[in-house]
Amino acid sequence: MSGGRKIRVLVCRGPTCGDLRDSAKIHAELERHVDRRGLGDHVILDWQSCFGQCQKGPNVLYREAKGREDKLHLAMAALVGSVKSAMHHAMTPERATGLLDRHLVSWGIRAAATPPALAPGPGHPSSAPLVQSNENHDKKRGPSEG
User: Fold this and answer.
1) What's the rounded Cα separation, in Å, for the pair 61 and 85?
2) Using 50, 70 and 90 to split pLDDT, how confident is the model at 98?
3) What pLDDT, in 10s, does the model give residues 6-46?
4) Taking the C-alpha atoms of 54, 49, 110 and 95 in order, what is their torsion angle to the nearest 10 degrees?
5) What is the CATH number of the domain that holds 21?
6) Which positions ≥6 away from 104 have C-beta within 8 Å?
7) In this model, does residue 135 exceed pLDDT 50?
8) What is the mean pLDDT of residues 68-89?
9) Threshold 0.90, pTM exceeds
10) How far is it, in rounded angstroms, from Cα 22 to Cα 58?
11) Is 101 within a domain?
12) How far is residue 59's CA from residue 99's CA, in Å, rounded to a whole number?
């Protein structure tokens, strides 16, 4: 399915994402996840100094790897071009690994088959929708609704 294709994952380590919001935990969990799932042939994991989205961080860019792109080029054209890419904000380690799995499959880089011992359960981030609606966020519950 992959034909040697890869996904590049860049975790922001700028002062806001790294120092204030500890993006190192996200990077470390992604590294463990890649090792546990045997994704080394499909994933290039690296750091980025800043994406300019500091107030939305920690930020992670997932981008289909094309040739020998340098990180500066990737940061400047993060969501532009003919490759698949997605910038995600307010990341957690769990969400970052779930999104990695989903992008690998949805972009056709890796087959969806997961060994049964590693299959995510109902509460795993990869089973949640990518875009969640907050339309009921401000509605108050009545006494009978718990």
Assistant:
1) 7
2) very high
3) 999 999 999 999 999 999 999 999 999 999 999 999 999 99
4) -40
5) 3.40.30
6) 7, 39, 42, 43, 110
7) no
8) 68
9) no
10) 8
11) yes
12) 12
For residue 120 the two structure tokens come to 């995510």
**105 located within any domain:** yes
| Total domains present in the chain | 1
Range of the domain at 25: 6-145
Please list the residues that pair with 48 across neighbouring strands.
12
In a domain, 70, yes or no: yes
Token pair 């100094």 is found at: 49
CB contact at 8 A, 59 and 89: yes
To the nearest whole percent, how much of the chain has pLDDT over 90? 56
Report the C-alpha gap between 86 and 103 in whole angstroms. Answer: 9
What single-letter amino acid sits at 116? Answer: P
Mean pLDDT rounded to a whole number for the chain: 77
* Triad 13, 17, 84: Cα angle to 5°: 70
Q: Could you tell me if residue 1 is inside a domain?
A: no
Residue 52 region, left (φ>0) first, then alpha (ψ -120 to 50), else beta?
A: left
